[in-house]
Amino acid sequence: MRSISRLFGDSAPIIGVLLAALTLGGCSAMRIGYNTGPTLLYWWLDSYLDFDSEQSTRVRNDLQAAHDWHRQFELPLLGKMIGDLQTMTHRPVTSEQVCSLVDALQVRLHITMERLTPTIAAIAPTLQNAQLEHMTKEFERRDRKWREEWIDGTLAQRTERRIKQIVERAESFYGPLEPGQVAVVRAHIESSSFDGPRQFREMQRRHQDALQVLQKIRGADAGINPTQSLAEIRELLGRTLKAPSPSHARYMAQLTTESCRAMAALHNSSTPDQRTRLLQTLKGYEGDVRALNGQASSDIPSDNPGTSAF
Questions:
Q1: How far is CA 110 from the centre of its chain?
Q2: Which range (4-8, 220-224, 292-296) has the least confidence?
Q3: How far is CA 206 from the centre of its chain?
Q4: Which of 1, 113, 210, 261 could join 14 via S-S bond, C-beta 3.0 to 4.6 A?
Q5: 3-class secondary-structure state, position 236
């Protein structure tokens, strides 16, 4: 998940629980995943903060409201993006086109995450010491897991793990990759600027940032009103999506450029059968979006409230 998880510093790469169903294989899986999004996201947030009864009610209600908003306003936009992608399946693409898609998805991600900042801002003042301690332990647990996957072990083991992850993801769209295409992925990984320890340090920075902000605005003696609390959470979101360090921003930009270049090369090496498979997959996703939204993907509401609060 590179989504609301980032608000709490998790580094996993997702577009959001409400959008993550698009990464599931099969139409029924996507529809089930999307429709259960509020519940899945609630349990994910609860794993960090262990909500009490009053907090739980607020969070559940707000997640459902965000889900309803997303279905009405964001799904049509997502459907249009998928439709536009279909026109590119049988043509060569450039790394710039791939990066443009990434940028567009990041905008949608930020808007979706912004819908949840009022919820976090509302419950932050009510958090208890035990909940922040629970959150700290959850960060530590996820840190250990991340280290095991991306820092510990040999370079060869980490390289093979990353190659396997990318190949499996690509094959969910294109079908089985040919040896030469796997070689494209391997070349990308072996020349990548990816720096596990560096990303681990940034993840820990986000963890500490989140804990410090929540500590700052919680409790009756904090002296922070609801407007200030919302501003603090929005600033935290901004620092989470884009690290304050210019050097880290340059590092992430380099990683993105490299990934876009590799994805373009992989697509351009695809066979006619693989491109037909990609087109069929995208058409399936577009059909799912239409079914979930209950309207044609071209019927996009003209008055999207964007980042407005609940």
A1: 9
A2: 4-8
A3: 15
A4: 1
A5: helix
Domain containing 147 equals 4-293
Joined tokens for residue 238: 């901004």
In the predicted model, is pLDDT for residue 26 greater than 50?
A: no
CB-hemisphere CA count at 13 Å for 76?
Answer: 15
- The distance between the two most distant Cα atoms of the chain, rounded to a whole number of Å, is 65
Residue 306 covered by a domain: no
Structural domain count of the chain: 1
Residue 64 lies in a domain: yes
Position 278, amino acid: L
Of 7, 120, 2, 19, the C-alpha closest to 71 is 19
Q: How far is the C-alpha of 226 from the C-alpha of 99, rounded, in Å?
A: 37
Asked whether residue 227 is assigned to any structural domain, the reply reads: yes
How far is 228 from 242, CA to CA, in rounded Å? 21
A 10 A CB-CB count for 120 gives: 27
User: Does residue 157 form part of some domain?
Assistant: yes
Name the strand (E) or helix (H) holding 250: helix 246-268
Q: Residue 62 and residue 38: Cα distance in Å, rounded?
A: 9
